[in-house]
What we know:
- By secondary structure, the protein is α+β, with helices and mostly antiparallel strands.
- 23% of the residues lie in helices and 34% in strands.
- The chain has three helices and seven strands, in the order αβββββααββ.
- A hairpin with a 6-residue loop joins strand 2 (39-48) and strand 3 (55-61).
- The protein is globular and about 40 Å long.
Amino acid sequence: MLRATKLVLFLSIIVFAIAGCGSNNEIKKGDRLSVEETLEREKIETLWEDNSYSDAFNNDIPKGTILEVSFAPRTGSKVIECIPVEVNGVKDADSVEALLVPENIRNKEGYKGYTIAIKLDYIGKQVKKLK
């Protein structure tokens, strides 16, 4: 009996390790997320023509912002890479970017874009998945 219990426990651990047990599997590329509470001083990473260079800054992500997931999070990941597609009712990509990325960064030579890493802990609290 004890041996069977150990075997079931061992197999359960293996299944959870392979399949994962967090909410990561619920979020996939292309999903849309709604910011339910302003996210203060979130890290926004910038993308550059020179891949060896990276930079980031902090900015608020306003309540009501709609984010699109860029990549499905890997098992064990603590963040979701997103791009804002709507801020304060503004849907034009250039205008959204202007609201979040300071002009002095957008106008730097070699700047290509930006991405936001939202903490998975926010899902279901400050950020909700849209259906």
